[in-house]
């Protein structure tokens, strides 16, 4: 129970369904702030109190479990290490993969519980080959992308009571009817452990600054920067280029090279990616029966899925995906989630991209 409206209503529905429910709030930071700042914040005292009030209203036991050390190691330190390596990670994926449905689920099973119930918007379907993960009924709130890291074993011990709810407005209305004080509490957003939203400044403190070159695709220097970690693939603003493009058009960040602290920029069309691949992957349920299969690929939580062909090379332990139309602005470190209709097939961390536009084009 995070202290938000979704987990409170999920708990209420679980109780109403006749389950033996215990509320657990995860303390993920030992230096959490006392108060939230609007919709920003992580593990604040206010959030814990909101969760406790909801549990008290529902008449269920409530505990706070300290996972701050594991969160620091598995999520925050991973986030910093990925940026140091020039990649763009998704900390929500890591939290689901290593904390909520790993550390939390492991402890729950050890204590004799059957499942972890959360307020995520996604559907679980018992298919012919086991439990399947599907998109939620409310496309606007669907969170199947960030849950794509879950394995068959984890899905077997997971419960998403909100997956069939047509809209978030109905969840808030239900919370109000139940007397839950969090009915109108703002949704949290951005990176939870950077409550002020200044990711660039936060990374500068963790990674440090170091002057480097900004170059074009041919390797010619066109500017300088104070730290490659401050840039993301597809970024246009804040480049401060000293040499304008020959055609006068704006340039975008195409590549980040941490080894020599170089940022590569180029035209908008060079952001198009014709192929992605990764060696860190998992299947959300049964593994594909064929090495090559059609799918849809989604590379961001709120991006549209793109039809594609996937090749699972089990010998090389890699997944290669070729979209029907080029993907836009893909960064290594991002997660690619594969779908078959509404069903999540699996996911992989992107570690290689192939541009659709040759360097000399």
From TrEMBL:
Residues 202-266 form the tRNA-specific 2-thiouridylase MnmA-like central domain. HAMAP family: tRNA_thiouridyl_MnmA (MF_00144). The keyword tRNA-binding applies. It is found in: Cytoplasm. One of its GO terms (biological process) is tRNA wobble position uridine thiolation. This is tRNA-specific 2-thiouridylase MnmA. The keyword Nucleotide-binding applies. Its EC number is 2.8.1.13. InterPro entries: MnmA-like, MnmA-like_C, MnmA-like_central, MnmA-like_central_sf, Rossmann-like_a/b/a_fold. The active site is at residues 95, 192. One of its GO terms (molecular function) is tRNA binding. Keywords: ATP-binding, Cytoplasm, Disulfide bond, Nucleotide-binding, RNA-binding, Transferase, tRNA processing, tRNA-binding. One of its GO terms (cellular component) is cytoplasm. It catalyses: S-sulfanyl-L-cysteinyl-[protein] + uridine(34) in tRNA + AH2 + ATP = 2-thiouridine(34) in tRNA + L-cysteinyl-[protein] + A + AMP + diphosphate + H(+). Disulfide bonds join 95-192. The record marks 120, 334 as: Interaction with tRNA. Residues 278-346 form the tRNA-specific 2-thiouridylase MnmA-like C-terminal domain. Pfam families: tRNA_Me_trans (PF03054), tRNA_Me_trans_C (PF20258), tRNA_Me_trans_M (PF20259). NCBIfam families: PRK00143.1, trmU. It is an enzyme of class 2 (transferase). Transmembrane segments: none annotated. Residues 141-143 are annotated as: Interaction with tRNA. CDD domains: MnmA_TRMU-like. It comes from the Bacteria. Belongs to the MnmA/TRMU family. It comes from Microbacterium lemovicicum. ATP binds at residues 26, 119.
